[in-house]
Amino acid sequence: MAPVSCLGADLIVDVVGAESDKGQIHFGLYNSPNAFPEKDDRIEGSHKPIKKGQATGIFKGLPPGYYAVVAFHDENGNDEFDQGLFGVPLEAYGFSNKAVAILSAPSFESARIRVPEKGAHITIQLN
Q1: Of 2, 63, 78, 119, which cross-links 9 as Cys (Cβ 3.0–4.6 Å)?
Q2: Which residue segment(s) compose the domain that 80 sits in?
């Protein structure tokens, strides 16, 4: 069996605070401030069902380093982060490192977390 460092690290992301179990939680993983938080520029994305207001996403085999995660509750199942007038979010969302969005998405630096060789486990609270 190869050492863990050769296989890469796993990042486990628990999302809590969904107001219903309808739809799915979408996850986006980023490793660059230039890409964050654009959907097309993420390094990995996934979606998971919601049970009792929670969902868990796992990103496997990551090189140790700094990453940022975005999650949102796609309650209507249209695979988009719905926004209203002036970009006001219509669906619950959250960022790693408890980063806060004020008039726009937070910076990569405020949302980034360190994933060491042994991996990491974080929680994102939806807003």
Answers
A1: 119
A2: 4-125
